[in-house]
Amino acid sequence: MRLPSCLFAAALALLLAACNTKNPNGMPGETAAPASVQALPATAPKPDSAAARTENAVMPTDTSVAGAWLLLEGALRGHDAQVLNQLIDPEFGLWILEQPGALPLVTRVVEAGAFRRADQNRLLFSLDKQLMTCPQLQVLKQLPAADCALQTKQNAGFAQQGCFSGPATAFRALDFWPSATVKGATAAQGKAAQGRTVRSVLQTRTGFRFHFAKSAGAGGRWRLIFMDLRQPCSA
């Protein structure tokens, strides 16, 4: 199902309007075209440990990340690469975490529309057929962990079902890098991006998680940093 066109149009209008304000960590203010993702430097920036310490101060409510999720969901359902690219952080890029076999695969993506998933070489927009339809995100203090004994065809293994938003604390603590294959950048650069994440969105039907960071400064906006497309109870 597609989101109501009025909601997506309103959210898109807010995003494009925000592009006209200057923000050193956001998209350029001179044009409404999507910002290009920069090549990462040879020396990776250090993870922002302050993001974890000031999580509550940075985001007192969940409203803005819910708006970013609305844009992401609409872009995936509408196969809109322009909007999806605008959500990508111009410094850290978008990182997609998959597990096509025994080991994790992490890919830094510059052009979202051209990326193909390890799962049957499908475009990223093939996610539209897997996304849950939820009227709104349910905000939790901590995202639930999967229990594989609860796994069904409609539930990846969670006691609670739905679309949830919560702190990215658990994701920042994951260390999948030693065994991961990394494409498009280095593991050190990926760790730096991982350290920037602040909020996560979980869909329990698939177990997919989407991790966001907020640009620095009072006018900072939410950016999509990681898509974790692993299914928690898959072999």
Give structural notes.
Keywords: Signal. With about 240 residues, the protein is of the alpha/beta class. It has a domain of about 160 residues. The protein is built from 7 helices and 8 strands. A hairpin with a 7-residue loop joins strand 7 and strand 8.
Task: Considering the chains and any ligands shown, give keywords for the structure.
single chain, 8-stranded mixed beta sheet, 7 helices, globular, signal
| Global morphology | globular
Order of helices and strands: HHHHHEEEEHEHEEE
Which runs of at least 5 residues are low in confidence (pLDDT < 50)? Answer: 14-35, 42-62
The secondary-structure class comes to alpha/beta
**Strands, count:** 8
User: Into which percentage range does the β-strand content fall?
Assistant: 15-25%
Signal peptide: 1-24
Keywords: Signal
What's this entry about, in short?
Residues 1-24 form the signal peptide. The chain has 235 residues and is of the alpha/beta class.
Helix/strand layout:
Layout: H1 5-18, H2 49-53, H3 55-58, H4 63-78, H5 81-87, E1 94-98, E2 105-109, E3 138-139, E4 163-167, H6 169-173, E5 181-183, H7 187-196, E6 199-203, E7 209-214, E8 222-228
Parallel strand pairs: 1-8, 2-5, 3-4
Antiparallel strand pairs: 1-2, 4-6, 6-7, 7-8
Helix pairs in contact: 1-4, 4-5
